[in-house]
Design brief:
CATH class of the largest domain: Mainly Alpha
Radius of gyration: 36 Å
Structural class: alpha/beta
CATH superfamily of the largest domain: ABC transporter type 1, transmembrane domain
Number of strands: 10
Helix content: 55-70%
Shape: elongated
Strand content: 5-15%
Oligomer: single chain
Distance between the termini: 60 Å
Strand order of the largest sheet: 6-7-8-3-9-10
Length: about 625
């Protein structure tokens, strides 16, 4: 994969554009497994929409019947029977409607929760399959990625909720109401029908005006999330430099920009909502005037009751119109957030490729030939690198910061692929290796290792989930952390995140010991440890090195000098190689680093101190 390709695919999720049809098409696979919930919800929606028309029908009949009673000899017995019948029908309808509404909302909400769960699990599974280049892209910083996922799931689950709990009942009720209006009087039905497209058109124009601002707000939400995360991660640095005011001002600027965008959005929404309400009221007035006129002119089938009948039915027609702007706003938000969310699910080019080569035994001989590598941000890390790491030998990578040492380890562990050249293990290119099998045979200890939330034992077992407690104890002893663990109140059940940085480093090393792989990558493994702990860990690492292929990155000359072979890197190039003694006597960068390290340790004074004790 070239550098340009890495950049383009890493930013692919933000480039996806969706319309309403695309949104529904992408949600459908997550709804299909719960089709029985869909059927139940639709049946209940149909029943609820029919019952929503009962009030209008009853009022129509009641008004006309009362009017007839008033024009004849009034009898309380007939009036009582009429009122009892009306009460029984309306109360019975309300009781039945309560059950229907409960069922509809319950099953609709159940479907929303299940779909939300499936969306969350799907995106987690997808992210776990991505190659490292995806996470190193600027658009995929932790805070931004989390915002895309969280808001995507929330908006998509709300879309399911809106469709099955809000839109379907409202519009089904509106359709039934229109059918009844047309059945009673075509002219009144046409008046009601003419108002609907005007309202839809205004809503469509509103959405187009707000689309750009919505995208800006979405971007601002990501910036806010990333900014807060950066503050939390850098809080010790911020406080040590007394830079709270600067960070607060930076966040205030982001929040101010987002506030302005939100106010612009609300201002435009309120304008269009007022305009739509005006047309809705025009529709109600026209219905009243037209029905009253038809009654006054003795139009066939029209009566005083029909005035109330049509007004109430038009209220059922306009109910979804009153809710349309809110639902449409939610749908448009869902479109924006769905682009980021489904952009992640559709980033198939970012999925880590895995070959099929799966030998019974890994020997451990690596070779890099003419390797170039550039990170997705454009940083050129390696140029024309050639090196060979022999099986069972200790190879040290030496160089100043930014020379490309860790990049080589990342390539050897198949976290990234070179732009050009080849990387091979035991004579087979790494791209052909089964990635999971490859990493099962590699132990990796970094300068800063991640400790998971959970107990100490769970963190050590992460290196070999099938290991026993005795294996955990053995690994802890090898990492010289056992005695400190046993001093804790809960021993191995203590929370690992409560340990100090140096103790957490030993947990990571114990994790490597319990894995017991044939290949070991050590990237500044003792950087967080004190001198005594460093000596203890060095002794353990020396023991586990036997018969294994070891690649070590360290500024500690005591670890480098033990290597069988060293490669000196400078600005992404291999500039020296050989045994430590050979390279030192060549002069150049390695000698400079070695001598500087010795001077920084005050080797002469240390030697004098030791000699003075002899």
């Amino acid at each position: 994969m070239t550098a340009n390709t890495a950049t383009s695919t890493a930013t692919a999720p933000s480039s996806l554009k969706m319309n309403l049809f695309d949104l529904l098409k992408n949600i459908l696979p997550f709804v299909k497994p719960y089709r029985w919930l869909v059927i139940i919800t639709l049946v209940l929606t149909f029943a609820g929409s029919l019952m929503a028309q009962v009030n209008a029908v009853v009022l129509d009949r009641a008004v006309d019947t009362i009017n007839e009673l008033m024009q004849t000899t009034f009898a309380w017995s007939e009036a009582t029977r009429l009122l009892a019948a009306i009460s029984a029908i309306l109360l019975g309808k309300e009781v039945l409607s309560a059950f229907v509404t409960f069922g509809q909302r319950y099953y609709g909400e159940k479907m929303r929760i299940l779909v939300s769960r499936d969306l969350s699990l799907k995106v987690v599974d997808q992210i776990l399959r991505f190659r490292m280049a995806f996470f190193s892209a600027e658009d995929n910083e932790t805070g931004k990625l989390q915002s895309r996922i969280d808001r995507g799931i929330q908006s998509l689950s709300n879309t399911v909720n809106n469709f099955f709990i809000e839109i379907l009942p409202l519009f089904t009720s509106a359709i039934f109401a229109l059918i009844l209006m047309f059945a009673a009087n075509v002219y009144v039905g046409l008046v009601a029908l003419c108002i609907v497209p005007i309202y839809f058109y205004l809503t469509y124009v509103q959405a187009n005006h707000l689309k750009g601002w919505r995208r800006n707000i979405f971007g601002s939400h990501q910036a806010v999330s990333q900014g807060i995360l950066n503050i939390i991660e850098s809080i010790s640095v911020i406080k040590s430099f007394n830079r709270e005011d600067i960070e607060s001002a930076r966040q205030a600027a982001i929040q101010k920009a987002m506030t302005e965008q939100q106010m612009n959005t609300r201002r435009m929404s309120f304008f269009f909502n007022g305009l739509k309400s005006f047309f809705e009221q025009i529709g109600t007035v026209l219905i009243i005037i037209l029905t009253a006129y038809l009654v006054l002119t003795d139009y066939p089938g029209m009566s005083i009751g029909k005035i109330m009948y049509h007004v109430m039915l038009f209220a059922n027609v306009s109910a979804p119109i009153r809710q349309l702007h809110r639902i449409y706003d939610d749908m448009n938000d869902a479109l924006i957030y769905a682009e980021g969310f489904f952009g992640i699910l559709h980033a198939h080019d970012e999925i880590e490729d895995s070959g099929s080569y799966h030998p019974e035994r890994v020997e451990g001989t690596f070779e890099m030939r003419d390797v170039d590598f550039t990170y997705s941000n454009g940083t050129k890390a390696l140029t024309g690198v050639n090196l060979r790491i022999e099986q069972g030998k200790i190879t040290a990578l030496v160089g100043l910061s930014g020379a490309g040492k860790s990049t080589i380890v990342n390539l050897l562990d198949k976290f990234y692929h070179p732009d050009s050249g080849t990387v091979s293990l035991d004579g087979h290119e790494l791209k052909d290796w089964d990635t999971q099998w490859l990493r099962e045979n590699i132990g990796l200890v970094l300068q800063k290792n991640h400790i998971f939330s959970g107990s100490i034992e769970e963190n050590i077992l992460y290196g070999c989930p099938g290991a026993t407690h005795d294996d955990v104890v053995k690994a802890a002893k090898q990492a010289y952390i056992y005695d400190q663990i046993m001093q804790l109140p809960n021993g191995f059940e203590s929370q690992a995140l409560q340990l100090s940085g140096g103790q957490q480093q030993r947990i990571a090393i114990a994790r490597m010991f319990i894995k017991n792989p044939p290949i070991i990558f050590l990237d500044e493994p003792t950087a967080s440890l004190d001198a005594i702990a460093t000596e203890q860990i060095k002794a353990s690492i020396d023991a586990i090195k036997a018969g294994r292929t070891v690649i070590i990155i360290s500024h500690n000359i005591g670890q480098i000098i033990d290597a069988d072979q060293i490669y000196v890197l400078q600005k992404g190039h291999v500039v020296q190689s050989g045994t430590p003694s050979e390279v030192y006597h060549q002069g150049g960068l390695y000698k400079d680093i070695f001598d500087a390290s010795a001077r920084s340790m005050n080797v002469d004074k240390i030697a004098d101190t030791i000699d003075g004790q002899v």
